[in-house]
Amino acid sequence: MVRGKQKEQAREKAQKLAENRAGGKSQLETRSKGLQMKCPVCKTPAANYKVIVQHMEAKHLKQTIPPESSF
């Protein structure tokens, strides 16, 4: 076997790369933790009050925007 050592090194390197990539593909939990507020009308999640205000102005024109203390 001429390439025995090289083949073994390549396999070890590929295995290390696969181990590094194995965890953390999904960020659903992290994302859901960041979206704490919800629109009182349609229950769309939002990150903060400013986003809620923008959403209400764009999507729910006839509804009054609740004060920040209600969240």
Q: Share of helix among residues? A: 40-55%
CA gyration radius, whole angstroms? 24 Å
Q: Going across the biggest sheet, name each strand in turn.
A: 1-2
SSE series: HHEEH
The span between the termini is 69 Å
Strand content: 5-15%
Structure description:
The model has no long low-confidence stretch (mean pLDDT 85). By secondary structure, this protein is mainly alpha-helical. The protein is 52% helix and 6% strand. The chain is rod-shaped, with a radius of gyration of 24 Å. It starts with a helix and ends in a 12-residue tail after the last helix. The protein contains three helices and two strands; from the N terminus they run H-H-E-E-H.
Quick recap:
With 71 residues, this protein is mostly helical.
Which terms would index this structure?
single chain, rod-shaped, 3 helices, 71 residues, Zinc finger protein
